[in-house]
Amino acid sequence: MLTFVSITGVTIGTALLIIVLSVFNGFYDVIRGILLAQDPDIRIEHATERYFSHDSNFENRIKDVGEVVDLSPFLAGKSMLAFQDDRNEVVSVRGIQVESFLRINDLESHIRSGRFDFSVQNQRPGVVMSERLKNRHRIDLDDEVALLSASGMRRALTQFSAPRVNLFRLRGAYSMQQITDADQVYIDLTAAQRLFNARDQISGYDVRLTDTDIAHRVKRDLEEALGPDFRVSTWYDLQKPLYDVMYLEKWGSYFVLMIIVLVAVLNIVGSLTMIVIQKQRDIGILVSMGMSKADIKKIFRSQGLYIGLIGCGLGGFLGLLLTWLQHEYGLLRLSTAFIIDAYPVSISAFDVGIVLTGSLILCIAASWYPSLRASKVQPADAVRYE
Predict the structure, then answer these.
(1) Model pTM score
(2) What is residue 106's three-state secondary structure?
(3) Among 74, 109, 232, 268, who pairs with 6 as Cys (CB 3.0-4.6 Å)?
(4) Inter-residue contact 235 to 212 (CB < 8 Å)
């Protein structure tokens, strides 16, 4: 009976671990997908300066790295979005080269109103902002908006002149899932250079690779090619605090749920110890027949191994089955207010291996004390009261 309880505990603990880690992997993939819709595979910026010169030779050094598919220069900064009725808001402005930007980013597919257009019409360049920002300030398509950079305000104060205001017309608004509340405003790179008084300069390059998952390896190659004057950040580095928290939660849950397996392991210790007490006479007879202490230990360690194999096998099968059912049919649903309908799951072979290996090691370790106690049984003591 105790052995059955031990197997049941290992089965439940192993299955729960696989399911919970798969759910964490699923949420990680969802968040990563949302962030990668806005973040590049790799971003290159100057290590100390805010801006640096836009140089074709420098671009060629980046493209010489084999895994680089494409790159796009950008100029980023903060600006005040100003209106005639004193409704002002500080926004993040990003100047881009449209052609190269659209090769590495699918923002154009998220346009909900208007079009992705920065061309100059009626002496006004175009601007694209989020649908949320557009609605918050009740801006209509083709309305005129003003952007005022910090450098423009600083120059106005030092030169005692009116601040230089850059006027744009709203050409389009995009809508996409966002983790943060920051609303990005997009303008043409040349217009951004005028806005931030950074002629022929850029903030950095967004880079697309053949495979997002090789970003860390390519980062080392780019650092060697570009030298210490430039900072190379992967998609993980760009949102490192968020990704780190998700990893911490995942493995924190792993160690907490391992307590379930640990309870089952204590049952194994108890059940095997009871067997040693009940079978002292049999153990004594085996020893008197010439069986060594190592052989006695092996018997009980094998029993711990079999409990672990059965429990881990059943738990692994059950956990993978329930995870697959959740993935295919969405058994557990989420609130309609969430960005997805059901709990996301993603099975990782590494996680399954860690769970099964950890549970099996604990089961084997649980047999150490009973096997040691059995090996110390003396034949004379075992049959004394028989």
Answers:
(1) 0.81
(2) coil
(3) 268
(4) yes
